[in-house]
Structure formats: structure tokens, C-alpha cells
Amino acid sequence: MRTVYVNGQFVPEGEAKVSVFDRGFLFADGVYEVTSVLGGKLIDFAGHAARLRRSLGELEMRMPVEEDELLDIHRELVRINEIDEGMVYLQVTRGAAADRDFAYPGEEVEPTLVLFTQSKPGLADSPAARAGIKVISIPDARWGRRDIKTVQLLYPSMGKMMAKAAGADDAWMVEDGAVTEGTSNNAYIVKDGTIVTRQLGTEILHGITRAAVLRFAREAQMKVEERAFTIEEAQAADEAFITSASTFVLPVVEIDGTAIGAGAPGPVAKRLREIYLEESRKAGI
Ligand code: PLP
């Protein structure tokens, strides 16, 4: 049985408990982070910790523990659960107030901190990375502060179900005619050697993998444009791909039934995936 972390304690998953009055459960009043593990090491931990601090700050919540303790908890869970490749999920909610009330409770209510691991052997060498994935486009019906990584994941879940029903693997969301991002990842196209991805703003999550991949791309002298693009532009691109902590760099080979480029993973996505995995393994902690 897996060991999870709940509010200061490492406990078997079957014994872990959170109150029915927890605001994460009642109001989706919480934020989360996902950090990948490769070779038993945490990838980009500092980036995820920094984004957690920012998400909490935007919601007037405090960090439940300091960053070095957070790192210790991550490492301890990876060790106890013997994770070689996989993910560590972390959730912080505003905790459980005495009654259900929309207004935020006072400082006396402690936030809830939960962490758990998911083992994913073969994460880095996935069949999806070799074959590429198919996406469909759907309207972006999420709330306006997508830069905060909240646990409101119902629309992304609906999007994944829409993709599944259409025989695809994922969905890219479209707002005012332009692609925002994937349901749980950032979206990119490549045209004539230039990598194009949506600019940062409140419309998308500021992906930690996105930041690393764009840095590696620029270091490798690849051209990067941060701007909005349409589904039509994506369908006419040479390549498309997504990035996230759990997929790294994953080629997209079909959008709304149209093959992208040769309909197979392209050289830019393949190269970026290699660089990202190599550099991340080296920098893992
Ligand atoms: N965009 C959305 C909506 C996400 O949910 C995620 C990850 O969960 C990402 C982008 C990618 O972010 P990261 O690279 O930090 O995992």
C-alpha cells in the first residue's frame, strides 16, 4: 500500500483523512503542483515550488511549510514508495472552517497539505512519445485565472472525455479564435524552423516545462515566438507538440483529423524532448 502525506504525517493511503468541510472539497478552494521523478530524482522542483508560492499568493493563502521542508517531504515520499519514474502530486487547500461559508475563514484555520506519489515506469520512454498523439479542438470554457494552478479540473476532465469520444488523445482549447493550451499541457507549433507558443498571461498556466523547454530551444539557437495561433495555422504547420511535467515534450501528429506535417513526430519535437530529458536528469535533485 502506498504511503501518502497529510498535514505533517506519513500514513498508509487507506488511513489518510481530510474533513468533509475542507474547502478544497466544497469550493475547489485549493491549488496543486505536479513534479515528475526520473531516476528517483525530482525534476524542476525549484520551479514548481516557486509557482506554488505564486498560486497561493494570488489566492491570499500562505505556504503551509517552508520550501526546504516541502523538498524533504517530496524526497521522503519518493524514497518510501520507491518511485523510480513517476510523479509527486501536492495539494494545498484553504482548510476546513467550522461551517460552509463562501467567505474565506480567518488565519486560525490551518491549510490542508496533501502529497501523494504515482509510479509510472516507462514515463520517459513512452510509446506516445514515439507515435505522437491526436488532438481535437474544443472551446475554452474555463474561468479567467488559468495562471493560478487551482484544483478546479472539471472542464479539463470534460475535455479529455470529449477527446476520448472523438477517438483522440487530448484536446486543445480555443478562445476568441486562438489556441490557449491543452487540457493539461501547453501547446506549440513549428513552422519553417520557428517554434510558436501562446504568450504568458492569465489565459494559460505558466508551465514549468514550458519555461525550461523555451530556454533550451533558445540556447540551441532555435527561433521562438510567443504569440497566439489558430487551429488552421496549427494544421498547416510542419510540427506540433505539447509540454507538461508528466509528458515532457510530446509530439502531436493530428489536429481535428488533419495530419500535421508528415503525420509523424517531427525533428524539432524529438530534439527538444531529448534535450529536456537529458538536461532534467542532470539537474534532478
Ligand atoms: N497547462 C495546463 C492547463 C496544465 O494543467 C499544465 C500541467 O498540469 C500545464 C499547462 C503544464 O505545466 P507544467 O509544465 O508546469 O506541468
UniProtKB/TrEMBL annotation:
Q: Which GO terms describe its molecular function?
A: branched-chain-amino-acid transaminase activity
Q: Give the pathway.
A: Amino-acid biosynthesis; L-leucine biosynthesis; L-leucine from 3-methyl-2-oxobutanoate: step 4/4; Amino-acid biosynthesis; L-isoleucine biosynthesis; L-isoleucine from 2-oxobutanoate: step 4/4; Amino-acid biosynthesis; L-valine biosynthesis; L-valine from pyruvate: step 4/4
Which top-rank group of organisms is this from?
Bacteria
- Enzyme Commission designation: 2.6.1.42
**Presence of keyword Methyltransferase:** no
Cofactor(s), by name: pyridoxal 5'-phosphate
- CC annotations in GO: cytosol
Which keywords does the record carry?
Amino-acid biosynthesis, Aminotransferase, Branched-chain amino acid biosynthesis, Pyridoxal phosphate, Transferase
Instruction: Spell out the SUPFAM superfamilies in the cross-references.
Output: D-aminoacid aminotransferase-like PLP-dependent enzymes
GTP-binding among keywords = no
What reaction is this protein's catalytic activity?
A: L-leucine + 2-oxoglutarate = 4-methyl-2-oxopentanoate + L-glutamate; L-isoleucine + 2-oxoglutarate = (S)-3-methyl-2-oxopentanoate + L-glutamate; L-valine + 2-oxoglutarate = 3-methyl-2-oxobutanoate + L-glutamate
- Example GO BP: branched-chain amino acid biosynthetic process
Which protein family is named in the record? Belongs to the class-IV pyridoxal-phosphate-dependent aminotransferase family.
The protein's job, in short, is: Acts on leucine, isoleucine and valine.
The protein's name is: Probable branched-chain-amino-acid aminotransferase
